[in-house]
Amino acid sequence: MGQTECLFFLSGRKHMTTKEVRKIFRNGLVTNINSICETLMYVDANDRNIEYKVKDYGYDMIFVIRIPKLYYNPEVDDGGLKQIPLPLWKKDNDCEFYLSNNLIYGVYDSVEGTFMYNDNYNQLHDPIGLIFDQHQEKYFSDYNLKLWVRFSKFRRKYNYESLVKIDLNKEIWSDSLRQYKKYFYGFNTEKKNKNRTV
Fold this sequence. Notes:
Layout: E1 6-13, H1 18-27, E2 29-31, H2 36-39, E3 41-43, H3 50-53, E4 61-68, H4 69-72, E5 76-77, E6 80-81, E7 89-91, E8 97-99, E9 104-109, E10 114-117, H5 134-142, H6 146-156, H7 160-170, H8 174-183, E11 195-197
């Protein structure tokens, strides 16, 4: 089973019902731009202290985003990538963007003092139909990764439904998903208390 460094981001919201939270767990966090850095707050945290870090954020509901660093900032070796970066955003027809629900770790309810885990969270992230984050696109450009620059621009032209068809027809992510499945095998199998008091 692979162990990897993860990046944590927070998104503060007004108080929500359980039904509203579960809708976000199901559909993803919606924004008007596909940029984690511009829509969420980075927090220096880890799995052991993230639930306590959120207490000082100052919102009723704080969604916790947990992203493997190798998806977001893959290592570069001899002008190529050592890992395959995976896109993070679903683009709909109205040009709204949904951060993949697989990456939402859970939400802290500061009113109730509870943390609800997202059953859809999975470190083995499914990239089918998604586009890259703006930070990833800049990363490709900064390291002169021309194939990835072209690939990310190509994906940006299409919405989610169109990209799903392209990805499935060409099996674009099959190899990378097999690679990550092997790397992360056994992760996220432990049952968690969904409404644990922090």
